[in-house]
């Protein structure tokens, strides 16, 4: 299950894609648009919410029919409502692009297509997932066979149901059919998907519904007593489900091929690949925090937390916002040894081999920075769950990011599982009272280097980029003001490519 593209689809793929004429000029009936994309429901919510400026966000595959949907919605909402089509997302199309929506001063975003269901921090959202056909009887019958096979010698008590968002319109029928197929002692666990959401303010405090700051259980059931059923084809959602529910047996039902299979056999391979990336992160001293989303709530507190964690570990960190990722962009930051991607859960895992540096998730970074990393198999991709896990409860009942009190000898060599050798970590920034760092906090650097050809000296700041530049053979073009005379203009060639006319012959 290799994922070579990041943020749903790359820009290069959209440019080089070959489209048929039938795909470009798509004409759908009014009834099909109304039934498939719920224009009546969307118009009712827009009118009841009194939204005046409305942003319609479409993924690349729905752009050919965006004009038809726009016109039908425009007729339904009437005058006094301005609609705008967002054709290009800043990051992944599964995330709500609040930045582009704010460029047109929108009051609400109508998100079309696949969605990661991440909470927004600024604007309300109305979701239109689309509808795909689903054989609920076939899905329930396959699940019933698995349950009956586990009744002997097993104490199965519950089934957790997850599905792709495109099957949300058949969720009630699927639940009813599965409940009829399951024995009475087996409980069905399901959380319905919301078709609209309100913004969740992004701030530095974290609150939980239970009033606790502990990481919530992935499933409130014993792994030996519960199985997970996913309805949908192979996708990033299924990959994340396997990682976050690695202790459970995960079965998938593909409605396109009507196949039912056990997916848990892939979990060990996925975890082994992520563990290998984690070990490379342990050998890094310079990190780049990649901003992979601007529309998910709690991304700003998480970035602040990551900076604090790296500073306490005396690692150098740079915050970078590059939009959609590709190896050419990240290759410009040669001094960075490892990247930490802050993105929605469906775009957090980057398992592409063409990137020169490893890209880890915030949860993997927390494990890599520990003196003795221990991985129990639990995997966290949700921002709020991760922040809640590393928070402490204050007197006001809210959870604030806590400071880790774990101390480590800075002079102790670190054994690398990647190279099989001991390495001495570089220290940046320093800590109060520490004498082992390169530069004390609050003190200026005393290292000097030649600044130009006249042997002028300049101090070197405590910068990983500055130190990396000193070790490079090419350090940029030299300014030779007054040393080089301007060139004399000469007559060049003329004519066409098949036969130039050279005046100098």
From TrEMBL:
<dbReference type="InterPro" id="IPR042263">
    <property type="entry name" value="DPH1/DPH2_1"/>
</dbReference>
<comment type="function">
    <text>Required for the first step of diphthamide biosynthesis, a post-translational modification of histidine which occurs in elongation factor 2. DPH1 and DPH2 transfer a 3-amino-3-carboxypropyl (ACP) group from S-adenosyl-L-methionine (SAM) to a histidine residue, the reaction is assisted by a reduction system comprising DPH3 and a NADH-dependent reductase, predominantly CBR1. Facilitates the reduction of the catalytic iron-sulfur cluster found in the DPH1 subunit.</text>
</comment>
<feature type="region of interest" description="Disordered">
    <location>
        <begin position="480"/>
        <end position="505"/>
    </location>
</feature>
<dbReference type="InterPro" id="IPR016435">
    <property type="entry name" value="DPH1/DPH2"/>
</dbReference>
<protein>
    <recommendedName>
        <fullName>2-(3-amino-3-carboxypropyl)histidine synthase subunit 2</fullName>
    </recommendedName>
</protein>
<comment type="subunit">
    <text>Component of the 2-(3-amino-3-carboxypropyl)histidine synthase complex composed of DPH1, DPH2, DPH3 and a NADH-dependent reductase, predominantly CBR1.</text>
</comment>
<dbReference type="Pfam" id="PF01866">
    <property type="entry name" value="Diphthamide_syn"/>
</dbReference>
<dbReference type="InterPro" id="IPR010014">
    <property type="entry name" value="DHP2"/>
</dbReference>
<dbReference type="GO" id="GO:0005737">
    <property type="term" value="C:cytoplasm"/>
</dbReference>
<comment type="function">
    <text>Required for the first step of diphthamide biosynthesis, a post-translational modification of histidine which occurs in elongation factor 2. DPH1 and DPH2 transfer a 3-amino-3-carboxypropyl (ACP) group from S-adenosyl-L-methionine (SAM) to a histidine residue, the reaction is assisted by a reduction system comprising DPH3 and a NADH-dependent reductase. Facilitates the reduction of the catalytic iron-sulfur cluster found in the DPH1 subunit.</text>
</comment>
<dbReference type="GO" id="GO:0090560">
    <property type="term" value="F:2-(3-amino-3-carboxypropyl)histidine synthase activity"/>
</dbReference>
<keyword id="KW-0408">Iron</keyword>
<keyword id="KW-0479">Metal-binding</keyword>
<dbReference type="InterPro" id="IPR042265">
    <property type="entry name" value="DPH1/DPH2_3"/>
</dbReference>
<comment type="pathway">
    <text>Protein modification; peptidyl-diphthamide biosynthesis.</text>
</comment>
<keyword id="KW-0411">Iron-sulfur</keyword>
<dbReference type="GO" id="GO:0017183">
    <property type="term" value="P:protein histidyl modification to diphthamide"/>
</dbReference>
<keyword id="KW-0963">Cytoplasm</keyword>
<comment type="similarity">
    <text>Belongs to the DPH1/DPH2 family. DPH2 subfamily.</text>
</comment>
<dbReference type="GO" id="GO:0051536">
    <property type="term" value="F:iron-sulfur cluster binding"/>
</dbReference>
<dbReference type="GO" id="GO:0046872">
    <property type="term" value="F:metal ion binding"/>
</dbReference>
């Amino acid at each position: 299950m290799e994922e070579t593209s990041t943020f749903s689809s790359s820009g290069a793929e959209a440019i080089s894609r070959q489209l048929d004429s039938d795909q470009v000029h798509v004409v759908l009936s009014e009834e099909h648009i109304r039934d498939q994309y719920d224009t009546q429901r969307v118009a009712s919510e827009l009118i009841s919410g009194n939204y005046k400026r409305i942003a319609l966000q479409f993924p690349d595959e729905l752009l050919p029919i965006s004009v038809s949907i726009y016109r039908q919605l425009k007729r339904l909402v009437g005058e006094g409502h301005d609609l705008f089509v967002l054709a290009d997302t800043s990051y992944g199309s599964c995330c709500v692009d609040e930045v582009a929506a704010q460029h047109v001063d929108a009051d609400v975003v109508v998100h079309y297509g696949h969605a990661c269901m991440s909470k927004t921090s600024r604007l309300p959202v109305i979701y239109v997932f689309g509808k795909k056909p689903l054989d609920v009887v076939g899905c329930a019958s396959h699940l019933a066979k698995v349950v009956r096979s586990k009744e002997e010698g097993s104490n199965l008590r519950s089934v957790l149901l997850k599905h792709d968002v495109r099957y949300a319109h058949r969720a009630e029928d699927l639940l009813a059919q599965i409940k009829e197929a399951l024995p009475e002692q087996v409980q069905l666990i399901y959380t319905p998907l919301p078709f609209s959401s309100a913004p969740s303010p992004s701030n530095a405090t974290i609150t939980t519904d239970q009033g606790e700051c502990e990481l919530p259980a992935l499933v409130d059931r014993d792994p030996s007593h519960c199985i997970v059923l996913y309805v949908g084809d192979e996708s990033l959602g299924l990959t994340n489900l396997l990682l976050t529910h690695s202790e459970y047996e995960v079965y998938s039902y593909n409605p396109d091929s009507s196949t039912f299979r056990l997916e848990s056999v892939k979990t060990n391979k996925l975890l082994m690949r992520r563990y290998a990336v984690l070990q490379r992160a342990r050998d890094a001293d310079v990190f780049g925090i990649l901003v992979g989303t601007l529309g998910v709530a709690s991304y700003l507190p998480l970035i602040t937390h990551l900076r604090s964690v790296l500073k306490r570990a005396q690692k150098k960190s740079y915050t970078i916002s590059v939009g959609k990722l590709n190896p050419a962009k990240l290759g410009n930051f040669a001094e960075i040894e490892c990247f930490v991607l802050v993105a929605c859960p469906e775009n957090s895992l980057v398992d592409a081999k063409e990137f020169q540096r490893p890209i880890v998730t915030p949860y993997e970074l927390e494990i890599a920075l520990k003196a003795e990393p221990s991985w129990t198999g639990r995997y966290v991709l949700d921002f709020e769950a991760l922040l809640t896990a590393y928070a402490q409860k204050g007197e006001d009942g809210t959870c604030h990011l806590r400071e880790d009190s774990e101390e480590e000898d800075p002079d102790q060599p670190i054994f690398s599982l990647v190279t099989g050798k001991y390495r001495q970590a570089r220290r940046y920034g320093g800590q109060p009272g520490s004498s082992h760092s390169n530069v004390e906090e609050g003190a200026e650097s005393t290292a000097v280097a030649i600044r130009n050809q006249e042997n002028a000296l300049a101090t070197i700041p405590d910068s990983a980029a500055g130190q990396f530049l000193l070790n490079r053979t090419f350090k940029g073009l030299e300014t030779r003001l007054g040393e080089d005379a301007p060139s004399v203009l000469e007559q060049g060639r003329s004519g066409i490519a098949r036969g130039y006319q050279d005046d100098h012959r």
